[in-house]
Design brief:
The complex is a heterodimer of chains A (208) and B (321). Chain A is mainly α and 208 residues long. Chain A has helices at residues 9-33, 43-70, 84-96, 117-142, 156-182, 190-197, and strands at residues 2-5, 150-151, 154-155, 199-202. The N and C termini of chain B lie far apart (100 Å). Classes of the chains: A mainly alpha (208), B mainly alpha (321).
């Protein structure tokens, strides 16, 4: 059994703070979008929570980007193009077939690369594409007075609303998959424990 | 105008006015009208009489009481407060006494507010065109015979709503103009808005004109509200025009509220205590259905995957055993 220190303290703090804000934004966003549903929060309370959590999430995202720039955590987000297709198909094959047949995980976590290629591409998409879109459209809502009336002939505010909504739904899909994938480590809780302690412990891996 | 008592004969009209003028002069001498002193100097002579709240005469032909009084405080605060009275009332009123038979005055807004002039940023010609098409401009109700700009917009008190004034106040002020004639709306037995859910909430939050004017088109995007007041049967009755993706009316409400809050609360407070969000503004039935279907399918897929893993785990356990 070997252990690798994968998640420094700042990253874990950011991760769990984002998780909490994600949940708050999800519940309050749904309460605003489907206002009037008795299972959800009251509209006024939801607006306040959504605005405050959105602002904190923005600060968190900026912290994440800065952290990746000044620490070596950013290297995990650099795509290695060589053999990408092969690694991708091996990963898909594993999750769709091998995992049910006791196959060995095709990717070995190391301190140089902690993400398998599917993980890496989805995190890249979420953190560097969806999150900026979500944040920019969210702030555009907050300061709608400065938006032009139309954008390329379409109502500007409506475009902003649709982008925010679509990205929010995409992130719900991400969250569901992310929560499920946590359980696909060596045991159900291996990955969860790693994000809590920072240490990734796997029995099958040779000591570094 | 309301009838209160039998009035003087037509020929005695100006005599009655003169006696009122005398009373006004006495009041001014007593210093009871300080606001008149705020007026431009050339208006003081006019306001000596017209600042009296009781200055009026009864029209000999119609029998209506014609109110000639001007509230000097409201005039001073209005958009026309710095203008000399005779700038608009150009004929016959430069001197006192006014001639007994005055010529009719061409007091339409467009006469002064021509397109392209620096003194206004409102498209008055477009407004006049819209008004001509409105139910107020071309309705066949005899009550509309003398209807004009001034029926709704009192030129002696008109103020432009600027961001910073509370939204509820703007809405209430705006709707008060409509309700001053359309009194049946305040009577639950005669009001025809019974179909509208949450009537009071709507009336507190939106202006009558939001539904009773056509949606602004791209051509007049710089003008937030049309002056083409629609007849009731053509007015907006479709909830989704506001509470959904149709954007123009929604954008109008949202952008104004947002602007108003920015001016009132400042940038940071606005971001946190943003109350401008309009219920339903992000609603799109297509995106909602597609996304919820995707979420449902993903959920089912993940459950199926999990069950598969569990079965494989048990099978592997049995093999080992």
């Amino acid at each position: 059994m070997s252990a690798i220190y994968l998640y420094p303290r700042w990253l874990r703090l950011w991760h769990w703070l984002s998780a909490l804000l994600f949940l708050m934004l999800l519940v309050s966003g749904a309460s605003m979008h489907y206002a009037g549903n008795p299972w959800l929060l009251s509209f006024r309370r939801a607006v306040l929570i959504h605005n405050a959590a959105g602002i904190l999430l923005t600060l968190g995202w900026i912290g994440f980007i800065v952290g990746n720039l000044i620490s070596d955590n950013g290297r995990h987000y650099r795509i290695h193009w060589r053999g990408l297709v092969g690694r991708l198909s091996a990963q898909v094959r594993y999750y769709s077939y091998g995992i049910f047949h006791g196959a060995q995980h095709p990717f070995a976590v190391s301190s140089a690369m902690k993400f398998n290629v599917l993980q890496q591409l989805s995190y890249l998409g979420v953190m560097y594409l969806l999150m900026p879109l979500l944040i920019v459209s969210g702030w555009a809502f907050l300061f709608a007075a400065y938006l032009p009336e139309t954008l390329f002939g379409i109502g500007a505010l409506w475009s902003v609303a649709m982008i925010h909504l679509t990205v929010a739904y995409c992130l719900v899909l991400f969250l569901m998959t992310h929560l499920y994938m946590i359980t696909t480590g060596e045991t159900l809780f291996t990955n969860l424990r790693a994000m809590l302690t920072g240490w990734d412990r796997e029995s099958g891996r040779p000591a570094p | 105008m309301n009838d209160f008592s039998p009035g003087p004969q037509p020929g005695r009209r100006l005599t009655a006015v003169r006696s009122l003028v005398m009373a006004a002069a006495l009041l001014i001498l007593a210093g009871s009208l300080p606001a008149a002193a705020d007026a431009p100097p050339e208006n003081r002579a006019c306001l000596r009489c017209h600042a009296m709240s009781t200055l009026a005469y009864r029209d000999g032909t119609t029998g209506n009481l014609i109110d000639l009084s001007i509230d000097p405080r409201r005039l001073a605060g209005s958009v026309h407060g710095k203008l000399a009275c005779v700038k608009c009332h150009v004929q016959d009123y430069a001197y006192y006494p006014h001639p007994q038979r005055t010529k009719p005055e061409p007091l339409d807004c467009v006469g002064c507010h021509r397109e392209g002039q620096a003194r206004t940023h409102y498209p008055f010609q477009a407004i006049a065109d819209q008004y001509a098409k409105s139910i107020h401009g071309n309705g066949d109700d005899p009550k509309l015979r003398d209807f004009g700009c001034h029926s709704c917009h009192d030129p002696h008190a008109l103020r432009v709503s600027t961001p910073g004034k509370a939204l509820a106040e703007i809405v209430a002020d705006d709707n008060r103009v409509c309700l001053s004639c359309h009194v049946e709306v305040s009577d639950p037995l005669r009001d025809r808005h019974h179909w509208l859910p949450n009537r009071q909430a709507h009336w507190a939050a939106v202006r009558c004109v939001e539904c009773h004017t056509p949606m602004a088109t791209l051509a007049d995007a710089d003008q937030r509200v049309s002056h083409q007041i629609l007849p009731a049967r053509q007015s907006n009755r479709d909830c989704v025009n506001c509470h959904s993706g149709n954007q123009r009316l929604l954008s109008r409400l949202y952008a104004y509220r947002s602007q108003e809050e920015l001016a009132r609360d400042g940038l940071f407070a606005k971001a946190v205590f943003n109350e401008a969000y309009v219920v339903g503004m992000s609603r799109s039935p297509l995106i909602d259905r597609l996304s919820l279907a995707f979420i449902g399918l993903t959920g089912l897929g993940l459950i199926a995957h999990g069950v598969g893993r569990y079965l494989a785990y048990r099978r592997a356990g049995e093999k080992h055993a």
